[in-house]
Recover the amino acids of this structure.
DNA sequence: TCGTATTTCCAAAGCGCTTTGGATGAAGAA
DNA sequence: TTCTTCATCCAAAGCGCTTTGGAAATACGA
């Protein structure tokens, strides 16, 4: 069923039917009701491609899945972020499109998506330090929003981010106040912007307390469970092991916990642990009592906000730059305690 | 840059340029090269909406995210499945579209997506027993593939699934052979088809061994970490606790492990545990030695296969029904051992 | 009554592409 | 030479919608 057929059934022109359905004023209210009834009855749905062609808008927002070619890793936060965004998209009548691209072709993927008119805007996830994609998108003139920020990138752009630095600074200070001096940081990949910021917060807290950072206590890699286990295990075997560990992801924190258990160490007593918690739906940090002391910030909520900001940007491309800094909450759970007495 | 402009630059008709770029034979090879060079030089990308309108195909495949309204839960396998599928879509020139829909409007979401011409085919994830969506999609005539199957649905349809029954039957038998008699099952939601099949396998193995199933050892809910913890904790406090636990998800298995640790029980010695492992990229089951004894089947690979099957279906809508049953591998890890002597 | 708004509708153009049905000219056959 | 046959290209229609620029009919004012 297309517009033409529907209009013939109704004995009206396509113009009138189109207007009736799209809420234009120049159509009699009786006619509108008649049209709407017929549309529902016959299950008429305007063809999105034709509509897009005519209006010049696709009502689609693009995401690029950065399936890194080396590490075939899907970020666990992906699902929740997307679910949050999708909900808002749906509310505003947008669909969501994904394209897959490996590291080498991400830029082309974005360019392609936009220039062939497939999307009205894009979301850039997981920015690296000096993220080159931001410049590319800016020059292309495509509305976009960054989930995160990119140190070293010139110019302004819309972004939503967690205050990674302050949250890790606070978490570190929390541990220092508990008497910890040897605090390890199990972080994400070095070149990720969030990892740099978290490290900066960690270092600043150490600095404020007059603690010299120990490079052997700072690790970084893709944040899997196995990675957390591997690094924690290595560190507790050191001559001078850390008494506390800061971890950039709950998933890796689970690996850390596993390593501690294997070594017969008790979290919160022998070793204190703080993790960053994205509040994933399938991995809540305990029920009433949090398992891990954690810096918590819902990535799903970030997805919702990102979607709304992007839609706003699409609506007014020349509007003022929008930024949004979420503060992570420091929730205290059972994984932290006073530094053990080693003397 | 559109076709018209490009053809004017080249001094050729739109027809010829279009044909040159799409590999039709009726164009001189020199001309074709000239056209291709100009297209690259000017960064010409055919507008997908216009192309779609003209060809009648959208080159997009739809997924519906079933963000259940009650439990705001995103399935953790979502990311990996999608990453697998997306890769294949990209290889064949397809994009991937997501729509969000709550439980009540999923059917409408599919109908809408297809009837307005937004997608050429859809993927149906997480089928329930008697899944009504399958009938809907069949009647609509939209090419689709089911990730999973649906007991009780009449008619044939394309699907790819893991042999849930046989894998859980084998896993259960494995535990029985180790001397376990009280074996618990921490399963997914009752109405999910996979959960029913896993339970059937479990029950059959018990039956074969002459063990009467104990309803108090069978739990089912959405498979979060907290759920695994909660159920395991409850069961080990029973008068007659299980000596082995079968779990439908690695995430929940982690919760089970947490409960066992809290109770001072050692996995593999005091309680044996087998989990189903979807081989998620961020949650590998250990490195060399598997942590959990597990029934393993890569959901990412399932995504790839599903994508290829669907594309094949789109190509030949009248082709024979395609089904694919993957056998899960039983990997033996450190979480299982002989039943403890209780006498 | 006539002239002017206002309401309600429509024909046709246009969005950017593919594809049908030729047209043109060169090469080969007779 | 004249007639076919290819090879190569093009004009125009069509995909299904929105939107421009009226036209017709009705209401209103004087």
């Amino acid at each position: 069923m297309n517009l033409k057929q529907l209009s013939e059934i109704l004995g009206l022109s396509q113009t009138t039917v189109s207007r009736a359905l799209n809420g234009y004023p120049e159509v009699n209210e009786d006619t509108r009701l008649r049209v709407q009834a017929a549309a529902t009855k016959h299950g008429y749905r305007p063809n999105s491609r034709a509509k897009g062609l005519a209006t010049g808008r696709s009502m689609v927002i693009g995401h690029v899945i950065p399936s890194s070619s080396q590490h075939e890793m899907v970020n666990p936060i992906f699902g929740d972020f997307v679910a949050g965004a999708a909900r808002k998209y749906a509310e505003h009548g947008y669909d969501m499109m994904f394209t897959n691209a490996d590291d080498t072709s991400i830029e082309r993927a974005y360019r392609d998506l936009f220039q062939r008119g497939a999307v009205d805007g894009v979301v850039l996830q997981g920015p690296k330090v000096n993220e080159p994609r931001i410049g590319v998108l800016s020059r292309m003139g495509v509305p976009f929003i960054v989930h995160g920020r990119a140190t070293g990138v010139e110019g302004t752009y819309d972004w939503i981010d967690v205050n990674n630095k302050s949250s890790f600074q606070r978490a570190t200070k929390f541990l220092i106040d508990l008497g910890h001096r040897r605090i390890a940081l199990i972080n994400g990949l070095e070149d990720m912007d969030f990892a740099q910021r978290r490290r900066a917060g960690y270092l600043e807290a150490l600095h404020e307390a007059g603690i010299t950072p120990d490079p052997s206590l700072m690790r970084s890699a893709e944040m899997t469970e196995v990675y957390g286990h591997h690094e924690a295990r290595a560190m507790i075997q050191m001559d001078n092991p850390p008494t506390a560990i800061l971890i950039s992801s709950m998933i890796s924190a689970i690996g850390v916990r596993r390593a501690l258990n294997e070594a017969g160490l008790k979290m919160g007593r022998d070793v204190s642990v703080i993790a960053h918690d994205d509040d994933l739906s399938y991995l809540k940090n305990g029920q009433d009592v949090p398992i891990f002391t954690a810096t918590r910030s819902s990535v799903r909520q970030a997805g919702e906000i990102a979607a709304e900001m992007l839609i706003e940007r699409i609506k007014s491309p020349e509007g003022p730059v929008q930024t949004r800094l979420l503060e992570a909450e420091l929730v205290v759970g059972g994984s932290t305690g006073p530094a053990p007495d080693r003397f």
Remarks:
- The mean pLDDT of chain A is 93.
- Residues 12-16, 19, 26-28, 31, 50, 52-56, 117 of chain A lie near DNA strand C (CB under 10 Å from a C1').
